[in-house]
Amino acid sequence: MELDVYKTLKAPSDEILFKERKSKFFGYAYPIQHEDEVKPIIEALKKQHHTANHVCYAWQLGIEDIIYRTNDDGEPNNSAGMPIYGQIQSFGVTNVLVAVARIFGGTKLGVGGLISAYRTAAQMALDSAGIIEKTLQQRYLLHFDYSEMDKVMRILKQHQIEIIDQKMEMDCTLEISVRKNEAILTENIFAAMYPVKIKKLDV
After folding, report:
1. Beta strands in 32-184 (DSSP E)
2. Contact by Cβ (8 Å): 48, 82
3. In what order do the strands lie in the sheet containing 96-103?
4. What is the pLDDT, as a whole number, of residue 147?
5. Is the backbone of residue 161 left (phi > 0), alpha (psi -120 to 50) or beta?
6. SS3 assignment, position 22
7. Which residues are the signal sequence here (predicted)?
8. Alpha-carbon dihedral 155, 159, 163, 166, rounded to 10 degrees
9. How far apart are CA 85 and CA 130, in angstroms?
10. pLDDT digits (tens, 9 = 90+) for 88-97
11. Among 7, 79, 97, 165, which residue is least crowded by beta carbons within 10 Å?
C-alpha cells in the first residue's frame, strides 16, 4: 500500500531566538504550497532584520515528487542551508520553508559552530510550529443522468466519499475527493456502473 499521509505545518511558527557567542539567530518556519512564496517571505525577513548579516534558509515541496533548495546567503558553503534542511528531513515535514536570520555578534564561530547554530535555530523553529498530518487526495468528476442519482449517492455515502462540488439538473455532475489509497477502488466501482462516467482530475 502506498503511503498517502504526510506531515506539514499547521501555521507559521513563532519567532525563536538562539544566541551563540553574542551572535543572534532568529528562526522561523512557514507552511508553503509553491516555490513563488519563498522570495517574498525572505525579503520581508531581510527588511524586518535589516541589521542581519545573513538570512539563510531551506525549503521542501512535494509528497511523491520532492523538490528542495538550500541557501547559505554568504555563509561558508553548506554551513547554513544544509543544516537547516537536515532539520526539515529530521522532522519529516514537507511543503515547508525554514529561515534563520543571523546578526553577527563580533566573534567568529567557525564552520562547525555555524552548522550547529543554524541547525539548533531551525530545530527550535520547527519545534514551535504546529505539525499536522494531512492525507493525499485524488479528485474525480462523475457524470450521470438524474435517474442514477440514488444509486450514486448510496455508494458515496457507503464509502464516505466527500463531495466537493455538484450540479444537479437532468444531467448531473459531481466533483468528489477520495484518499489516494482508495483512488483505484473508487475508479473501479464507478467504471462498473454503466451509464455513470468517471474522470480523473489533475489536482
Report:
1. 54-61, 67-71, 96-103, 131-135, 137-145, 162-168, 171-179
2. no
3. 16-20, 23-31, 96-103, 54-61, 67-71
4. 84
5. beta
6. coil
7. none
8. -10
9. 18
10. 999 999 999 9
11. 165
Domain range for residue 85? Answer: 5-134
- Decide if 14 contacts 127 (C-beta within 8 A): no
Domain CATH for 67:
3.30.230.30
Report the pLDDT averaged over residues 4-27: 92
117-142 tens-digit pLDDT? 999 999 999 999 989 988 888 899 99
The contacts of residue 27 (CB under 8 Å, 6+ apart) are: 13, 15, 16, 17, 18, 98, 99, 100, 121, 122, 124, 125
> For the chain, how many residues are written?
203
Do 91 and 44 share a structural domain? yes
- Number of domains into which the chain is organized: 2
Backbone angles phi, psi at 181, to 5 degrees: -65, -25
The residue to which cell 512564496 is assigned:
37
| In a shared domain, residues 179 and 144 | yes
What pLDDT, on the 0 to 100 scale, is given for residue 15?
94
- Cα–Cα distance for residue pair 64/74, rounded to 1 Å: 32
Q: Mind listing the pLDDT tens digit for each residue in 55-80?
A: 999 999 988 789 999 999 989 999 99
Total-model pTM: 0.76
pLDDT for the residue 54: 95
